[in-house]
Amino acid sequence: MNHLKCSFCGCIFDAELKRCPDCGTKVKRKEANQYYTGPLDLKVAAVANSYPEKDILCSILDAEEIPYLLDFPDGGMASSSLLGEQAAVIHIMVREAELEKAQALLAEAQDQAEEIDWDTIDVGEPLDEDYE
After folding, report:
1. Among residues 132, 129, 113, which one has the least CA distance to residue 121?
2. I want to staple 126 with a disulfide (CB 3.0 to 4.6 A). Which of 74, 86, 100, 131 is the partner?
3. How many Cβ atoms from other residues are within 10 Å of residue 43's Cβ?
């Protein structure tokens, strides 16, 4: 399988895609330096179930400068749920040497998210009485 490296964000992805799955930059196939030929000793660090979740997880890895590759086992197709949300399975893969660090960072972020006391967060008034 051939891979490309996005010239804008540096994401490494399947060469058959027409746009970078991370930032949406259109692939320019004429640039020879865009093809990634390094070793792909990758392991799944996390699985995101939506594009917003993918963005959050990738931003955590970006902050620590951990490179990752996005894998879309279902071909990158998103399905719509009844609520209009986009659902997809996205594997976030990192080099095996950085797997432990990446998983620890992502687990720490998950723990912090679970510690939020939503009863203390002001989310405003409901837009419709039917939601109460």
Report:
1. 113
2. 131
3. 15
Structure confidence at residue 103 (pLDDT): 93
Q: What are phi and psi of 38, to 5 degrees?
A: -70, 170
Tens-place pLDDT, residues 90-109: 889 888 888 999 999 998 88
Express the helix, strand and coil content of the chain in percent, nearest 5 each.
30, 25, 45
The top-scoring range by mean pLDDT among 11-20, 43-52, 111-120 is 43-52
User: Pick from 61, 98, 54: which is nearest to 76 by CA?
Assistant: 54
Quick one: residue 128, left, alpha or beta (phi over 0 = left, psi -120 to 50 = alpha)? beta
